[in-house]
Every structure is written in C-alpha cells, then in structure tokens.
C-alpha cells in the first residue's frame, strides 16, 4: 500500500476524481406511488458540508453521494412502521466554518429532521454534534476524522471511516520507512488539520523521527513562502501537512519553486485530484493517505463509481462513497427498528452491521467504525 502519489494517481483518480462544483442536479426520481389507503411519511435527512469557499468541490461531492443514496431509497420504496416512507434531503452550507456549522445545525434541529449526515469537516462536526445530541438526533459523518468527535460521550455521534489516531499512526510509520530522519510539520489550525498533525507527530517521534520545525497556516491561505523559507533553512527531509487540498496543492508547488528538496506528505484532505491539479508537476513523487481503500479494490466500488459518474457526469472527488454509505446506514437503522422516530431507531444505529460500498460497517461503543482501513 506504500506508493508514491504519482504512482497512485490512476488508482486514486479512478476512484476519487474531480467533482464539478457547478454541476446541475437532475430531478430527483419519484418514489413509487403509495397504495390506496396506505399513509406516506416524509423522512427528513439533514446534510451539511461546505458548499461555498475553497472546499466547495468537496462539499458538492458529499452532497452528490447523499443525493444518490436518497434517490435510490425512494426508487425502491421503503415501508417502515406500516407506512410508505419518502426520504427528503435538506442540504445546508456551513462554509467549513465552526460558527456557521452551529447555526445550520440549530436550523436542522428546529426543522425536526429525523437524522443528520455530516458535517464534512471535523471543525464543524464537533460543535454541531452537541446540538444534535441535546436534541436526540442521530448524526453520521462520512468524512470527519478528528477523534474528539466520538470521544465526547454523545450517543448520537457516529462515523463511517477511520479516525485520525489510526491515520496518524500509519502516516508516522510510513514516513520512517521512507528512510528520512528529519521532518517539518505544518497544519492549518483546524480541528482536522491540527488533530491529524498532532497524531502524526506522536507516531513519528515514537518511531525515532526528529521534528525540526513546526509551522502554522489557515484554511484560507494561498501564500506559504514565508513559512517554507523557514523550513528550507532546517534542511528537513520531509514536510508533513495537516490540512486540505486547497492549501496543500499550492504549498507543494511553492516548495518546488523555493528549491526545497523535501518530500511532501499529507492525509486524506490532500489525497485528491484537486491536489494534483493545484500542485501541478510539484505533486509528482509525493505521498498521501486515505482512511479507507480505493474504490476499484472494493467489491461494490466499480459499480458505485459507474452509477455516480452516469448520474452526475462527474468523477468522484473523495468522500462521496462514505456519505452514500452514511445515508444507507441511517435508513437501514430505521428499517431494523421499524420506526423513523430518532428516539426509537437511535439504538439500532449503534447495532449496525451493514455491507456498504466502503466497508462492512459496524460501530464500536464510541460510534467509531470498527477496523477502519488506512491506505497509502
């Protein structure tokens, strides 16, 4: 699983390629008509991701995954608690901002949604999770990896991918296996970026790697030459970045422009075709991790990719398959509990054993995915 980014470009791009931010959505497939006399219940699922700002391409990708799942459920026509159910997706934009995340979370609580899919970022997911917990609304994220999300003791919080403790350990061990002895660490100060960088540092130092520089940026920055100049003076053999592709791509490019010979290593936030696009030639020969497996290596992956690209006329960016699975797990829990009432089907979420696109999904006592895979 240890391959250079350039070498896995075909693998990753095949499974996680760029999703257009401005892609028009086709009309949702109509659910089969309810039999005469059979009541119909509308199940409202909230979905939250950044639909504006530097991460809008990832937000759109998440939304597309949720849309695909909802349309598939409605086309099948599910019956729960003696009534035909129709799933309705309520999309909200948190702009990857924690304050906005709390605002839209309260909006979904007030709308009395049956469940929430998201948020995308750990920085918005964590504060929002308190609101959903207080309201008793199940929340399943397909992309928030910071350990704190599921360590708060909220029975409503779940995630369908590996967390940053697992990912940071693999990244740290991988760095050592590359034969480097010194590393510079940069993070964007978000819950995701800082959390992943902290876990990487623990694993790297435990494996004997020396951290020679620690620098910070933010998730809106585009110019990194000042901090990279400092890093260049340390002669670090590796630069680890905790953050997303909108910053990671330009950072890799500016490293090359400054003549920095160090390799670039990042987590899932930079393991996207957008990183390769923004980094250009500088993206070649660098490394990233995925909290999961490439789609083509999964039994249901190729069929999902084909279904997604035909529906949206766009390739998958990154998290869409996980968001799709999150919706399906929520619906499966309702079906097993024979209720769409959050108070009644919440327990069923924790008892999930669902054969999804991304994994056989089961949760531990904290709401984390059991046996989450990490690939380089």
Explain what this protein looks like in three dimensions:
By secondary structure, the protein is of the alpha/beta class. The chain is 41% helix and 16% strand. It is built from twelve helices and 13 strands. The strands form three sheets. Strands 2-3-1-4-5-6 form a six-stranded mixed beta sheet, sandwiched between helices. A five-stranded parallel beta sheet has the order 8-7-9-10-11, with helices on both faces. Strand 10 (263-266), helix 9 and strand 11 (287-288) form a beta-alpha-beta unit. Helix 5 (164-177) packs across helix 6, helix 8 packs parallel to helix 9 and helix 11 packs across helix 12 (342-350). The longest helix has 21 residues, at 56-76. The N and C termini lie close together (5 Å). 53% of the residues are buried. Mean pLDDT is 90; it is low at 1-31.
- What count of helical segments does DSSP give? 12
Query: What share of the residues does DSSP label as strand, in percent?
Result: 15-25%
**How many β strands by DSSP?**
13
Shape: elongated
Distance between the termini: 5 Å
Largest sheet: 6 strands, mixed
- Which regions have little confidence, pLDDT < 50, spanning 5+ residues? 1-31
A few lines on this structure:
With about 375 residues, the protein is α/β, with parallel strands linked by helices. It is about 40% helix and about 15% strand. The strands form three sheets. The protein has a six-stranded mixed beta sheet, with helices on both faces. Strands 8-7-9-10-11 form a five-stranded parallel beta sheet, sandwiched between helices. A two-stranded antiparallel ribbon has the order 12-13.
């Amino acid at each position: 699983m240890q391959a250079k980014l350039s070498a896995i470009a075909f693998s990753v791009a095949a499974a996680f390629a760029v999703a257009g931010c401005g892609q028009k959505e086709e009309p949702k497939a109509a659910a089969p008509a309810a039999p005469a006399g059979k009541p119909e219940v509308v199940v409202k699922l909230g979905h939250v991701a950044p639909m504006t700002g530097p991460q809008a391409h990832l937000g759109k990708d998440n939304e597309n995954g949720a849309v695909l799942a909802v349309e598939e459920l409605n086309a099948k026509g599910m019956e729960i608690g003696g009534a035909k159910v129709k799933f309705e997706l309520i999309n909200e934009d948190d702009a990857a901002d924690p304050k906005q995340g709390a605002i839209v979370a309260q909006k979904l609580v007030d709308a009395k949604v049956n469940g929430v899919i998201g948020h995308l970022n750990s920085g918005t997911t964590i504060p929002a999770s308190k609101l959903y917990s207080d309201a008793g609304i199940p929340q399943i994220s397909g992309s928030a990896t910071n350990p704190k999300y599921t360590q708060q003791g909220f029975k409503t919080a779940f995630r369908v991918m590996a967390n940053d403790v697992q990912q940071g350990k693999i990244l740290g061990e991988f760095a050592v296996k590359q034969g480097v002895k010194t590393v510079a660490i940069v993070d964007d100060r978000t819950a995701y970026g800082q959390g992943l960088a902290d876990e990487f540092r623990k694993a790297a130092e435990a494996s004997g790697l020396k951290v020679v520089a620690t620098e910070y940026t933010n998730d809106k920055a585009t110019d990194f030459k000042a901090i990279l100049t400092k890093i260049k003076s340390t002669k670090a053999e590796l630069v680890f970045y905790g953050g997303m592709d909108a910053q990671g791509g330009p950072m890799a490019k500016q490293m090359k422009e400054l003549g920095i010979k160090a390799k670039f290593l990042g987590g899932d936030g930079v393991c996207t075709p957008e990183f390769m696009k923004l980094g250009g030639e500088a993206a070649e020969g660098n490394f990233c991790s995925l909290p999961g497996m490439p789609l083509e290596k999964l039994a249901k992956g190729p069929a999902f990719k084909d279904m997604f690209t035909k529906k949206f006329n766009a390739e998958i960016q990154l998290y869409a398959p996980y968001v799709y699975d999150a919706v399906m797990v929520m619906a499966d829990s309702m079906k097993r509990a024979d209720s769409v009432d959050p108070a009644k089907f919440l327990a069923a979420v924790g008892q999930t054993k669902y054969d999804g696109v991304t994994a056989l999904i089961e949760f531990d006592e904290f709401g984390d995915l059991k046996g989450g895979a990490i690939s380089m």
